[in-house]
Amino acid sequence: MTTYVLVHGAWHTGELMESTAAPIRAAGHDVHTPTIRGNAPGDDRRSGLEAAIASVADYITGHNLTGIVLVGHSYGGMVITGVADSIPDRIARLVYWNAFVPNDGESLNDMVPPHYTALFDQIAGASPDNSVVMPYPIWREAFMNDADAALAQSAYDQLNPHPYATFTDRISLKTNPAAMQVAKSYINFTEDSALPQSFGWHPRLSEKLGLFRLVQRPGGHEVCFTNPEGLAEAIMAAGRD
Questions:
Q1: Confidence of residue 199 (pLDDT cuts 50, 70, 90)
Q2: pTM for this entry
Q3: What pLDDT, in 10s, does the model give residues 33-46?
Q4: Domains in the chain, ordered, with CATH?
Q5: Looking at residue 38, what is its pLDDT?
Q6: What is the mean pLDDT of the chain?
Q7: How far apart are CA 5 and CA 187, in angstroms?
Q8: Which of 19, 47, 55, 74 is labelled catalytic?
Q9: Neighbour-count burial of 190, counting CB atoms closer than 10 A to its CB (0-12 exposed, 13-18 middle, 19+ buried)
Q10: Distance of CA 31 to CAs 4, 11, 40, 42, 86, Å?
Q11: Which of 34, 64, 135, 218 is the most exposed place for a label (fewest CB within 10 A)?
């Protein structure tokens, strides 16, 4: 049995990872799906990256989890990198699923196209709590490009405003990912257009891991909605010994 901790991306909660967790549990593994601080309904959206990282690290230590496979999706890559830097002895493998891979001093916004930064700056600036809401046209065309309209809308209705400080805060690391003494994997869903293909996830971000296992599957950015069973299989392939 392996212990998996699935860390969701921006606008999501841990609850939205439950459809993916179910097949992994059915295969005999222990799966946890915490919600990052700042992302639960009712959370303070002015929360920053340091608090987000601490919330997952505290979940792991509070549940006395060891030897875990720590999986991060998209923005969750920022979080799992910080967690691995702060409690490395509890983690057996890091798995980045179409996720950001930061080095020390980088923010998420350093790794996205300028037009996204300009858009989210504008949205956050008009918000009373510095949060950003995903515009539906971007969600439909870039994040849920492999879904029909009904699924895209039902998934969108489950999203929450996201604390923008987690995109602009620069991460503080003692060790960059490539130098971390932990096994690493990168899952790349090949039709993911949440980032432009010329500015994509793999190999631009994955190569920052140094030595890593690559797992590739067809699908878009939000396979937790469109193909949770296939995502679960990819996570288990990435997380195995």
A1: very high
A2: 0.98
A3: 999 999 999 999 99
A4: 3-239 (3.40.50.1820)
A5: 98
A6: 98
A7: 15
A8: 74
A9: middle
A10: 5, 21, 19, 25, 21
A11: 64
Give the tokens for residue 175.
Answer: 């060790």
The first and second tokens of residue 213, run together, are 């296992």
74 catalytic residue (yes or no): yes
pLDDT tens figures, 115-160: 999 999 999 999 999 999 999 999 999 999 999 999 999 999 999 9
CB 162 within 8 A of CB 170: no
Handedness of CA 67, 163, 10, 113 (dihedral sign): negative
Closest CA to 61 of 28, 91, 24: 91
